Each structure stands twice: as C-alpha cells, then as structure tokens.
Amino acid sequence: MSKVSGTDWKRLAKMRDEEIDMDEVPELGDEFFARAELHVPPKQAVTMRLDADVLSWFKEQGGGYQTRINKLLRAYMQAHQRKHS
Hints:
The chain is built from 4 helices and no strands. By secondary structure, it is an all-alpha fold. It has one domain. The chain is extended.
C-alpha cells in the first residue's frame, strides 16, 4: 500500500470482535470474492550501488530492508509525480 492508514491498529488489536462497530461496513459475499483480483506491481531485480553506511543502517533495522528501501523510493517518486502534474 502506498498510503498510510489512519487506523489505530494497536487499539484495534486489543478489542474483541463484539466491540468493533461494523454498522457502516458492507457485508462481502461469495460473489465479491469470486471476482476479486489482487494487483501487485511486478518486482525487477537490479544491481544498485549504495553507500556502505546507508545499506548497513537499513540492514540494522531487520529483515525486509529491501522492501523498506523500495517504499521510500516509491514515496519519493509519487511526491515528485504530484509536484510535476
């Protein structure tokens, strides 16, 4: 997802199902899921030269560092697309 969620996930995780107000959420039936499609942008392997300290810092944050780098690059790209459109 490219947009940050406004949901308080920690608070929600602590709630019991009965405490969650679902009045405004439509029920999704079998037909919806039969037609649903997942669209994920394709990944492309690249060789990239990064400063050693930058790469080390991302790796120190734990697994998924390449995904985090990709998310930052995507946010930068989208900010510049909005600026020039």
